[in-house]
Structure formats: structure tokens, C-alpha cells
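Order emerges. As here.
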Amino acid sequence: MYNYDKILAKDVMCKRYITLKENYQLKHAIKLLLKNNMKEVFVTDEKNKLKGIITLTDISRLMKQKFSESLILKECMIDNLITIKKDIALLACRNIMRKNKIGILPVVEHEYLIGVIRKQEIMDFFYMGLEKAGIKLNHVINCLHEAVCVIDENGRVVIWNKSAEKLYNVPAVKILGRPLGEFFPDAMDVKVFRTKEPVENVYHSPKENCHIVINSAPIFLDGKFLGVVSTDRDVSELRKLTNELQKANDTVEFLKREVERFSNDGFGKVIGKNPKLLEKIELAKQVAKTKVNILITGESGTGKEVFARAIHECSSQKGLFVPINCSAIPNELFESELFGYEQGAFTGANRKGKMGLFEMANNGTIFLDEIGDMPLFMQAKLLRVLQDKVVRRVGGEKYNNINVRVISATNKNLKKMVELGSFREDLYYRLDVVQIKLPPLRERGGDIVLLMDYFLKELSMQNNKDVRYIDPEVVKILQNYNWKGNIRELKNTMEYLVVLCKGNKITTDLIPNYILEEIKKNKRREGGSLDLNKAIVEFEKDMIKEALKMAKGKKAKAAKLLNIPRATLYYKIDQYEIDCQ
């Protein structure tokens, strides 16, 4: 915070001003003011010593009195100027302005103008601290959970924040500028307005069915009464929050006991029997009991986080599993999120400080997902933490020891990134002690059926649906689809099918068109045949089926869509044995 008693005029004076010699005409002053968008011109003699001032207000008055623009400045300037020295305190400048009811003070040295203190300069400086921190007073007040009300010396409401609107169901546009007593005759602010005595933590009911705790105080400045400010909080809301917090704590404890009771094998959630996957599970189980850092690679959606959680649950780590998505954290928040911050470390921070995710994961596992998206400056800081096994919070001086197992994951080629200079080589070798590369879903064959069955049961329960069966043709189609999004895409597709299913069985008509089209393209590629006649037959079949679907089975309408005679359509339907139902 600034010590305003020690701020001098020279520290904040503005050096942007206009000067003209006293023998110049008024029209020159007008031209300069309009060109530079200024409000005053300082008049000097031939030796540049300050002699007077003329403002836009003065010029307007002269024009109304029909003075000529050729008038000499010396004849129309204000020459009884109040000036100050550069070493006068800023607070004294403000008092001089208020006492003399002026908005500008020239700063002079040996009769020469060296700067200007305007009313705006003083206002800007006093609010500079807030502006630099990016804090707007109205924004701060509206972000407060407490209802804030301020009334002026006439009892009229001048501040009424969003929490006050919500608590009292009175919009700001309706109450601002009006006497508070018109809306709440028994309000505590009205009482304080009369008595000029503060009240603290008083239970109060300003209107029916509204129970609050209120703090209200009169505002005095230089002994002059300016109004009343109050903050109100709903007591019933606090009680509700306390009860909900207790319930949440009880639930967490219950779930923790249940997890410890049933999760003796962390890899129980990894669905699959494919040999490639089983090989990775065995490798993961082997290294889980150690403390080496692990890098999990693979395409997006292959289940890297599920695998990391399973490794943690199979390990001897007693602490938490803390996942971090490196691609979702803004660069400027990386350090404070990972390492925490101390009280007052930066504007907007929790006033009590905050524990970082590394400290939270102490004696446990930290999972750095999308590690390839971590910026270079944070890679250097992370490397230091891995080497020294200590963290220091932002704004702090104390180093805290940590015991953390690091599991990283990426779908990028980190080695290539090292070659390109976008990932640190020393960090790469720190993280990649053991690498587990997960196979994509398209290489896991029969696992697709196992995952479909698992998701069917899970998603049916989540969406309150009674879907029990999947048509064998659906299974066949989904097995032949090239799952670019891997398990994540399969789960999303299954949820789509479950939600749209009207009965208890998923049928082929529910399969998204993009999947069917992709399979058709793959069949054409895999066929490798150059037989044009066969290709034309397949194309005609698809076109006729699509036309019949659009015509809802009406052959005459389908023939029109295909632009062929109806007899030709009947012939081709029989020829290709197309089912019209």
C-alpha cells in the first residue's frame, strides 16, 4: 500500500500541457486546445516564465461576450494563479484544490512551469493501487457473498450489490437513489443513520421471513457524516451449508471405507483380455510396487488415466491419487496450481494461502496428463522438484519436502519434441524411466464386445433405462469400425445408443450414419477389386435403399427421387432382392 503522506507533487505531476507566449492571440489558443484535446493553455512571457492561464471555460465566456479571437492572451488570461512547488505533499495539493475550489495546480520552479497537478491526476493516483491489481470496486462489491448496502448523508441508497438484490428480492435499478426507509422502515441502516452509532453481529429481521446477521457502521470523513455502510448475511444459508458440508464429509468417509474394502486389485477397472493389453497390465503391476516414474503413452481415449489410477491402487503409496490435465491450466496459473501459494502472494488469491497439488499428493501419486502441453518454463521448475524432492509455494521462502510418485501421460511423441526443442531432454529422461504404451482399441479385437457389455450396464443404470440386449448385427458393425477416439469414443457411442433406444434392445437403425459410412469406405478399400460392374451394383443398391428410406417405403416416390421409371425400380428391387419393409 502507498504511504500517501510521503507522495509529493513531483511524483505524480503531469508533464503534458500547452504553453503560449502572452503576445499570442486568442485564436491560437483555441486552435491548440482543439488540436490536442486539452482544457487549458498556460501563458508565459518572453523568458518562458509563467504569467497566467486561460481555459476552455474562459474562452466560452469570452465568446458569449462577443470578444474578438484576435484578442491578445495577456489581456484575457487569469493572472492570479495559485501555484505550488514540486516538493509539496500530494495530500496538501488536494486540500489546496478543495479549499480554493479549483481543479488545477501549476507546479513551478524559479517561476518556470515544470508540471501540472490536475484533479484527475490526484484521483488516478489514489485509485492506482486498485487499478494496477485489475480490481474494479463495483466488481469487487458484486463478487462479495454478503449483501452490501451504502446510503448517503440523505439516507438514499448509493450502493446495492447483487447479493443484496438476491437476499431482499429488490433489484438495484429500483432502489438506487431512493430512501432506504421507503423499502425497509425497520432496517438497521435506518437506525444507525439516526443514532450515528455502529452495530456488530446483530440478529435482525428487516422484513417478514428474512433473518440475517448484520454489521452496520456510520461513515465519517474529516468529522463530516457521509452515510452508512452495512453487510448482511443470511443465517439460514449458513446453517444449510454447514449441514451439507457435514453430509459431504460423512459420504466421503463412507466411500473411502467401501473403496478400501472392495478394491484389492486396482486393475479390476481395466476391461479387456487382449494379449497386448494383458502384457501392459503385467508390466504395470510389476513396476507399481516400486517408486520409479512412469510414462504412459498411447492415442487419445485409450484409458491412460484409468491405467494410472490402477497403478496407484496397486502401489504401496498411502497418499492420494491427484490427476492434473496440463493442457487445461493457463500458463500464468501453472506454478501456483502445482506448488501452491502463500497468503497475499498475488491479487485475488485466497487470503489464507493454498496448498499446491504436489503437496496434496504427498506420499501418494501425482498424474501429469497431457505432459507434452506443459510450457517450457514450468518444465524447468518441475525438473527441479523431481531432482530435489522439495517444493516452495509462490510468495513463500520455506521449502517443503515431498514424497511423490510421478506418472505422466501423453499422446504426443516426446522424443520428437525433444529434437525440436519444445520439450526438455533432461525432464524427458526423468519421466520416462519406465514407459507403458497402451494399444489402440482397433488392435484389441474381442475387447470391443467386453467394453460394449460393460458400458451397456453402466450407462443404462446412469440414464435410468432398461436396455439389456444388443442386436448381433450391431455388435458386428461396431467391431468393424475403426475407433479413432478409442475407448472414449466407444463409450460416447454406447451412451448415444442407450439414450435413443426405445425398447430394451439396441438395433441397427440406431447406429450413427458416420459409423456406417466409415465401414462402407473401409470395405471398398479392403476389397481392392477394380471390377467396375460390381462397384456399380453396390452403388445402385445403396442408392435404392436410401431412396426407399427417404420415401418411407413408397416405391413411386422413391422412383421420382432416383429419376427412373417405376418399372425400372421394381425390376432392380427384385434383381437385388432388396427388402422394402
